[in-house]
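LOG
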Amino acid sequence: MTSPVFLGQPKASLIRQQVTDSIREAILDMRLLPGDQLIERELVEWSGVSRATVREAIRELVAENLVQSIPQKGAVVASPSLREAVEIYQIRANLEGMAGRQCAEQATAQEVRNIRRAFETFRKAVESDRKLPMLQLKTRIYDAIFEGSHNETVKDVLSRLQARVTVLRAISMAQPGRLALTVVEVARVVEAIEAGDSMEAELACIAHVESAAEVAIQALRESLKAGAIEE
């Protein structure tokens, strides 16, 4: 049976952190979907580690809000509630808008080049239509923008929401046509930063988050109707 979690040949020498990282990546890459059950026996078989090690990994992911422990069911991949998703997108719009504005105002020439490079890598990956780690490539753009904003507080606040933000980003990007729109929206952000247009950069960041929110929240509403998530 092919494992959706441990890509390649499982190694008995995997330590707890490697197991945790493998499960986390499977969730963020959408190989494991919200609501999927994490069956300890299967994880032990796939990874070659002890059941105690698997349980420790699951506990860590529960603490990150990527996994939920449900009575009578066990551990399942978490999905943000509809209310939580709305709140997170509101926070993102405000903070990322601020980061975009400050980046346009304060980024060095090298930091602006880093943003453009990260965006071009993402754009080419989307246009190639190959199964590439799109979430990681998209995250590199955000990292470069936050670096250029020189605002450590924004980075710190959003880092605490990282797991849930990434799950929502994965839901949004998985919807038909969303990747192509993302390229257009983020191009607007990058061009505003390159032009040093702080107001346009802020508006473009907010517009991008709001567009992603609309797509992800609609997907979550469908899941709510199906009883897969909470309101």
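LOG (cont.) second protein
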Amino acid sequence: MKRLLVANRGEIAVRIIRAARELEIETVAIYSDADQGSLHTRLADYRIALNGRSATETYLNVDKVITAAIQSGADSIHPGYGFLSENPYFAEAAKKNGLIFVGPRPETISLMGAKDQARKTASLANVPVLPGTEVHSCQKATQAAINEFGYPVMLKAIYGGSGRGMRIATDPSQLKEKFEEASREALAAFGNGGIFVEKYLPNPRHIEVQIFGDAYGNVVHLFERDCSLQRRHQKLVEESPAPNLPANLRDRICKAAVELGRHVNYIGAGTVEFLVETDEENSARGNFYFLEMNTRIQVEHAVTEQTTSIDLVKLQLLIADGKKLPYSQQEISNRGHAIEFRVYAENPSKNFSPTTGQISYISRPFGIGVREDSWIEAGTAITPYYDSLLSKLTIYGNTRSEALARAGSLLSEYRIEGVNTTLEFHRWLLKQTEFIQGQVHTNWTEKNYNNQTVYPDMVGPLNA
């Protein structure tokens, strides 16, 4: 691997370029009209315009991205996360054009990308799955299947993601309306209105396991992350190790993730996600269920990098280049505690609605145990065309208590002016007893955050 095209933008493009540079791999950036002059285009060795502003015209256009790779002389493509990262046709197009795709085989992406197929595959690998239905195109067939396990249920699009194509029905009277809403949204977003149903867990924890596989049959895990703190089924905070997770349950979950990886002959970085049942008396009961598998690097990979001291993006590149995994399971350890706070261009006081504008001022925190992955600078324009993620602030400590205390100090110093951000939510969060005690679940934000600006950003920059 000599020259890598980074088929993405924003902070993940910056992250990939820096990892490739350490391995002495040249990089090619692609960019839309809206991203001209963005940080990732300046860091790369070469850059190619995709001509257009929307994601559909640019970063989601398979033909344009493959053509850019060929024209640039790249021998490989890293898709990052989002956009085309889990598109099997893109991975296959790269392969057909003689390009190394930094990710699993196209057939693996296809198998695990459709949620109904992924459920069946997990079950075949003896990984627990929630009671659920086959894919249905009408709500009558769905109702008949639901009678076997009862309400409440979660209706899910087979190609859904980021909370789209998902609805909750608490009784039969809601099924028709919720089914039609989910199917309609899924058809518009993903081109497929197929819906399946799973038993709905009211207040589960969301635990995911980072796995890695190579082309020689080796699969390992790099321990778990807790991603329970969410809004609209999208993550806000991730941490590792998962607080209050019994050791035997952690071992069972990690083992299940590796077994699934082996079952599908997984190559590269992947994440197996689970729901863990919770209740008021016990924050992590013994039942866990397969949710989905993400066949790519995760947004929150920095959490695992901080606790394992393993560069996951560099490892992706090495595995894609045909190298064996350099670690056995026994050689991988989890040390200390890391918490990642996602900073979005959103207004928490208005139901986390996306905001646009121009970054006028940034004051970043520095010190022991702080890492920021970002792409923004003073003057960066935040447009409505792409995901609203601005930055990821990952705080490390020897213990969770130390990481939380450090986070409180560092987040108080972090300033982003020009657009609303989720920094105010994170400052509020660090004052909440249930979060401090590690007792949150996937619906906790909606139930506890009252959309009030409790710890607002500064109006202007601090004086020297």
